[in-house]
């Protein structure tokens, strides 16, 4: 059926076609001794495509093939033999691709990808100078309430205590009364990201963070209550929690390089012992 459809398409494109002895079917187009065959169109038209769309796809493919061949012909006429000799570049590309494929498979088979907490911590402690903090970070809890909420005093009492934060009580209260709330006291977030969510205005972030634990903002129709649990100022040392994945990738990359270096050196030393190469 597909073969019959293809023949119909070819018939619609041309009233007559050349017969090929290449085993690839009829010749569809010819440009300066280059032939496009019926077999080259296999798979071009997917099943279910209308006849009109099928003809358009085939026409476009043939037209593009002709244009490309004409451009190649023009390039060959206008470039020198040296300019059209790509043998060295192709060999270099093949060599690079071969080595890359081998090394990728070697890493996949032999690289130990388990990085322990101890390794990450040790690297962090020994390289703290490389982990400069570029943004102010905070650990914060906040709730968003209707500006006229009767529960605002209860939230204020829980969140403004300077000595402790009753997180369980806050979660219970917020789950049934807050429009939205954030209660992750374990992870750092950028202060700049926080103020995109909360209408918090401050001219000096450092001074604000040093002097503020609790803040309440009325910005109708909402009220925002924020409790800052901790902060880190930019230009200090980035915490290990932030750098965890970065350090893990650094250590894995070091292992990759060590594995490849060991493989390269091993191959060279083995070849040297077996005298499989000579330097003149």
**Amount of helix:** 40-55%
How do the helices and strands follow one another from N- to C-terminus?
A: HEEHHHEHHEEHHEEH
Number of strand segments: 7
On the 0 to 100 scale, the average pLDDT is 88
Shape: flat
Write structural notes for this entry.
The longest helix is centred in the C-terminal third of the chain and has 34 residues, at 240-273. Helix 1 (2-13) packs across helix 2 (51-78), helix 4 crosses helix 9 and helix 5 (152-160) packs antiparallel against helix 6. This protein is an alpha+beta fold. A hairpin with a 2-residue loop joins strand 6 and strand 7. The two termini are 66 Å apart. The strands form 2 sheets. Strands 3, 4, 5, 6 and 7 form a 5-stranded antiparallel beta sheet that branches. Mean pLDDT is 88; it is low at 1-5. It contains 9 helices and 7 strands; from the N terminus they run αββαααβααββααββα. Among the domains are: 2-78, no CATH class; 133-232, Roll (Chitinase A, domain 3).
Keywords:
five-stranded antiparallel β-sheet, disordered N terminus, two-stranded antiparallel sheet, alpha+beta, flat, single chain, Chitinase A, domain 3, 280 residues, 7 strands
């Amino acid at each position: 059926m597909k073969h019959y459809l293809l023949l119909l398409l070819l018939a619609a494109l041309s009233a007559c076609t050349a017969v090929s002895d290449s085993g690839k079917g009829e010749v569809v187009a010819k440009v300066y001794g280059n032939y496009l065959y019926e077999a080259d169109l296999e798979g071009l038209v997917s099943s279910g495509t209308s006849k009109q769309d099928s003809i358009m796809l085939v026409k476009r493919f043939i037209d593009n093939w002709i244009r490309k061949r004409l451009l190649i012909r023009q390039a060959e006429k206008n470039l020198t033999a040296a300019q059209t000799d790509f043998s060295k570049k192709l060999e270099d590309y093949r060599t690079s691709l071969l080595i890359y494929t081998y090394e990728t498979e070697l890493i996949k088979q032999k690289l130990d990808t388990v990085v322990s907490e101890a390794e990450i911590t040790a690297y962090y402690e020994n390289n703290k100078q490389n982990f400069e903090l570029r943004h102010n970070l905070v650990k914060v809890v906040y709730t968003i309430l209707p500006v006229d909420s009767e529960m605002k005093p209860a939230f204020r009492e829980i969140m403004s205590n300077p000595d402790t934060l009753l997180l369980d009580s806050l979660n219970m209260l917020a789950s049934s009364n807050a429009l939205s709330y954030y209660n992750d006291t374990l992870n750092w977030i950028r202060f700049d990201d926080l103020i995109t969510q909360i209408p918090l205005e401050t001219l000096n972030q450092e001074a604000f963070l040093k002097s503020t634990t609790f803040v309440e903002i009325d910005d109708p129709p909402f009220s925002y209550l924020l409790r800052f649990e901790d902060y880190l100022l930019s230009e200090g040392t980035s915490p290990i929690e932030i750098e965890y994945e970065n350090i893990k990738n650094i250590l894995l990359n070091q292992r990759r390089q060590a594995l490849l270096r060991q493989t390269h050196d091993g191959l060279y030393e083995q070849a040297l012992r077996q005298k499989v190469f000579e330097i003149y």
